[in-house]
Specification:
This is DUF1907 domain-containing protein. Monomer. One of its GO terms (cellular component) is nucleus. The chain contains 4 helices and 19 strands. The chain is mostly beta strands and about 300 residues long. The chain has a single domain (about 5-95, about 110-295), classed as 60s Ribosomal Protein L30, Chain: A. Strands 2, 12, 13, 14, 15, 16, 17 and 18 form an 8-stranded antiparallel β-sheet that branches. A 4-stranded mixed β-sheet has the order 1-19-3-11, covered by helices on one side. It has a 3-stranded antiparallel β-sheet with strand order 5-8-9, with no helix packed on it. Strand 8 and strand 9 (about 125-130) form a beta hairpin. Helix 1 (about 15-25) packs across helix 3 (about 165-180).
């Protein structure tokens, strides 16, 4: 697969604190952005395969939305292990969560995937469970590192008062406004929330006589949407996220933000935004990527607006 590598401008975590602090303070009643030591992410509430986010952090954008729209390209399948080997370290409705050692001989795969189930009722139910496969289809957005402990960006926010409903949009809009297109910033990390948020999960692909999708509205109507409430403490949904402040040189055809989530009790999917304003609380940990690996970019790239 053709792979383009873009070495990102070196930007320290400390440089991100002030613009993000200002953005979160304008959107939430209570907010704090700081550089701190990463907790052990293998424990609750995060349940990740690796300890930290440090050690040659990179992001990889594989495939892309043109592999889904206007018609699913079903032969676009990717191995996360091959990507990791080549790039040094999301597929539709999958939350990749892998760690390895001994040259991939010892693999910890805590990946989950979400699907819809209508077999037991007339309503659409979400099932999120462990996935033993390390393969994905259509597209992936991955953050990879050596999994080392070390400094990370910690963001906490409570009681949304602003118009931006998405936690990750607050981050990328603020970074784009501050750094512009000349200094793109790419982040990867994990966050949890308390309150209610909106997600989508892909159902089975439409039959051939209903393809191709005519427009984005038809594509969005095909997806199933779900609101999940979280109380915190032992009740958590873990959100794994990759986001960019800008597309370097506007030529890489990046998906600007992608967040897939899982819980230990069967909830999960693609995070969109929170609901309920006053009740919402977030806690997230992120690291700055040193490079972007653009793998198997489709020849046709769907235009994306930063504020989409």
């Amino acid at each position: 697969m053709k792979t383009d590598v873009y070495e990102l401008p070196r930007t320290s975590l400390e440089e991100l604190v002030l613009p993000l602090q200002q953005a979160f303070e304008s959107n939430y009643s209570i907010a704090r952005v700081e550089v701190t030591t990463c907790p052990d992410l293998r424990g609750a509430p995060f349940h990740l395969a690796g300890q930290g986010l440090g050690g040659r952090p990179i992001v990889a954008d594989i495939g892309g939305q043109p592999n889904l729209f206007p018609r699913p390209v079903l032969d676009k399948r990717y191995s996360m292990l091959d990507i990791a080997r080549n790039c040094m370290g999301m597929a539709p409705d999958q939350a990749p969560n892998l760690a390895w050692k001994d040259n991939f001989e010892d693999i910890t795969n805590l990946t989950h995937y979400a699907k819809v189930d209508t077999s037991t009722s007339d309503s659409v139910q979400v099932v999120c469970e462990r996935c033993q496969s390390t393969d994905c289809a259509l597209m992936m957005n991955l953050f990879g590192s050596s999994g080392l402990p070390g400094p990370v960006l910690k963001i906490t926010a409570k009681k949304r008062q602003g118009a931006t409903k998405s936690f990750t949009d607050v981050i990328r809009f603020a970074l784009h406004e501050h750094f512009g297109n000349a200094q793109p910033i790419s982040l990867g990390g994990v966050f949890v929330y308390k309150g209610k948020a909106n997600f989508h999960v892909m159902p089975g692909f439409p039959p051939e006589d209903q393809l191709p999708f005519k427009d984005r509205h038809q594509l969005n109507d095909w997806l199933t949407y779900h609101n999940f409430s979280v109380k915190g403490d032992g009740d958590q949904i873990v959100c794994l996220s990759v986001l960019h402040s800008a597309d370097p040189d506007r030529k890489m055809g990046l998906r600007m933000e992608h967040t897939h989530c899982f819980s230990m009790d069967g909830r999960g999917g693609h995070y969109h935004y929170d609901l309920g304003n006053e009740e919402i609380e977030y806690e997230g940990y992120f690291n700055v990527a040193e490079a972007i690996y653009r793998v198997d970019r489709p020849e046709v790239t769907l235009k994306q607006d930063l504020h989409e």
